[in-house]
Amino acid sequence: MTWLVIVTITLAQPLSTLAQTADRVNRSVNGCPDVSGRFRVTGSAGAVTDSDAWAEALAALRAQQGGFTGSEVALSLLPSGSLEVRVKSGSTGVMPASPNAVLSHGDDFSCYGGWLSFKRAERASRKREQGWYEGLSTVSISRGPSGPSGALFVQVRFSGNQRSITHIYDSARISLPKLGTGIVLRESMRWPDISEPVPETPAREVAREPEPKAVLAVRTVLNSRVLGNMMLGSVTASGDAVLVTLTSHRSADVSQFEDRLRAASVAYEMKTQPIWTNNTYYMQLTVWPEGTAAGRSWRPSVLRVEHELRSLRPLATVDKVSDVGSAYVASISMLGSENLDVAIARIKANSNMFGAVDVIGDSMRADASRSRTVQLRLHLR
To answer: Which strands form 354-364's sheet, in the order they lie side by side?
Structure first.
């Protein structure tokens, strides 16, 4: 007797998708996932840190030019084991025919568990509620498993410690990790394949009335040259001023934007100080249009003041800056034996932001770090 057996197979994915996935596995080199493709450079999803892991990922790929809106990165994993990196910088850029960088398996990256991990560790810092952490960030990438539109997944791993200053010199700062303060933070990003449709931006509701003249005046001032890499949100009238919402992925972009406002003689102050959330700085400014800003001038954010005080390094480190209305109060850490007058002189020599610097507190710490906490009152020029 002859038996006829009929077997029915149900596929969870279309045959074309399975074939593409199998082809990608077959094209892996040295056990590395085939990350070949062209991707849109986007921000993070589910960010858990307050550092610029996004920029660290671009640095690991040698693709720093991709830090502008509308940038793309093209990767090619070659049979030789090399990884070619091409960068289209910004929305008006052009993808080059020759690679911007060529990375080698073994020297520049290794692969394990379906991830391609870059060997170069980037020096990095993270600011948490407990204070600053210093350490290293490493970057790994992998490709999505489903079809040619699979996104590039980027993971950034930061490991570091809080540190105690032991010695400070004009050219260097010597510090040791504080015991028991080690942390490991991970952040993931998804860079979509360019074949993936760009999410549609919801259509703006048609304004029932023309925007007030003050709003139009501020929009004119906040042109692309002044904004730089800042992303403009809502612009609404608020009395005789205008409330402006902005976001940015990098603290340096915030500082540079405020410098351009100052250079353009724009009077403003912070309604909401820059807040780091979901891998983005969020901030609100009150801006006075020209002709309504009598007696007002620029009022920088505490983030901008903190950046200005970086000139103190390595003589001292900035712990916190607060806006107290008439001035700013900065808490700094420095070694107990260091001359405070030298630190103040350095601030005045390297900054045109402050007209007066007053010492309002100076105390040794109770721990064994031999460092002290100094509080300074900073008055704008």
So the answer is: 317-323, 328-335, 371-380, 354-364
pLDDT digits (tens, 9 = 90+) for 262-316: 999 899 999 989 887 767 888 999 999 887 766 678 899 999 998 888 766 666 7
CA distance 211 to 214: 8
Note the pLDDT tens digit of each residue in 151-166.
Answer: 999 999 989 888 766 6
Give per-residue burial for 191-217: e unless 16+ CB within 10 Å, then b: bbbeeeeeeeeeeeeeeeeeeeebbeb
> What's the pLDDT at 14?
44
Q: How far apart are CA 59 and CA 72, in angstroms?
A: 14
Residue with tokens 């064994």: 368
What percent of the chain shows pLDDT beyond 70?
78
* Distant-in-sequence, close-in-space partners of 250: CB < 8 Å, separation ≥ 6: 52, 54, 55, 67, 229, 281
**Burial call 234-254: b when 16+ CB within 10 Å, e when fewer:** ebeeeeebbbbbbbbbbbebb
pLDDT exceeds cutoff 90 at 119: yes
Give the tokens for residue 157: 């791993």
Tens-place pLDDT, residues 11-39: 444 434 444 444 444 445 678 999 999 99
DSSP 375: E
Cβ atoms of 328 and 302 within 8 Å: the answer is yes
Total residues belonging to the chain: 381
Q: 323-328, long-range: CB within 8 Å, 24+ apart, which pairs? A: 323/270, 323/273, 323/299, 324/377, 326/379, 327/377, 327/378, 327/379, 327/380, 328/302, 328/377, 328/378, 328/380
Question: Residue 250 has which token pair?
Answer: 């990098």
Nearest Cα neighbor of 130 from 183, 204, 77 is: 183
* Residue pLDDT, tens place only, 317-338: 888 889 988 899 998 888 777 7
> Using an 8 Å Cβ cutoff, are 261 and 301 in contact?
no
The total of other beta-carbon atoms located within 10 Å of residue 341's CB is 9
Phi/psi-derived region of residue 136, left when phi > 0, alpha when psi is between -120 and 50, beta in every other case: beta
The number of angstroms, rounded, from the C-alpha of 171 to the middle of its chain's C-alpha atoms is 27
